[in-house]
Amino acid sequence: MISYIESSTYSPEVQQLRRLAMMVEYDGARYHGFQAQSNAISIQETLEEAIFNLTGEWLRVKGAGRTDSGVHAQGQVVSFDTCSMYDPSIFAQALNHYLPGDISVKSVERVAQNFDPRRWAISREYRYTILNSEVNSPLLRGFVYNVRRPLDTMIMLDAARLLEGEMNFAPFTRALYGESMNTSRIVFTCSVNRTGNMVFIDMEANGFLQQQVRRTAAALLEVGLGHLELNEFRTLSESGKPGVFSNVLPAKGLSLMRVNYPMPLFSSERTLNVRVGEIFEESHI
What we know:
The protein has helices at 43-55, 88-98, 153-161, 212-224, 230-237; strands spanning 18-26, 62-63, 72-82, 103-111, 123-132, 145-147, 165-168, 184-195, 198-205, 254-260. By secondary structure, the protein is α+β, with helices and mostly antiparallel strands.
């Protein structure tokens, strides 16, 4: 039976235990989501296996977002505890050697021992990508949803703006959410932009309900196709009724773009700030 290292299992006398954070990019097509499952391959267990191959430790990694089956990520944040003395930069290079080609570690940093990638996050950014073309793209088909009819992206943007701010997003999630479930979220930005025949639906929020982004994208698509009037979209969005928007676009068009924290987490994002020590260890081993 595999036993995983957790920070709580270590006594204060163990001085070498370190917590590392990784920025991870992956193509989620062949994975059944981020979270480990007993009968399907996941991002989490694939990362844990690579760490074992490098360090000999079976470590339980924690992710900032539990992406669903088939969803991609460009900026997933993962943390884990290790007694290995490899420099963080070595971790990044070595783990990529052991990882399959559809998962890549982009950066590794040592962080404070109480850092939690999910609880410390102040927002997450997702993007849904639509190829608005009569002809599908063989090169992009694993990462976009193809819509052949012309889309009115300006009216889609008007609808998207109605979702900004704090509101009850129950209409954009599964109907199984009961009345006792808190379905209120703060959406900081919701936008629709076109570049050529590519349409990008971007959302940043303090948290997301299950399937919220894909149901939002499906509803905005109905507006863009002329199947749903803007006033009707507004009324349904503000209804508070779980599962009102039942259509869910395919997972392949969705990607977790970025997870934001109170301070820049990785060296490429760092800015000079006296409070960096709140997240980062003062020294790196």
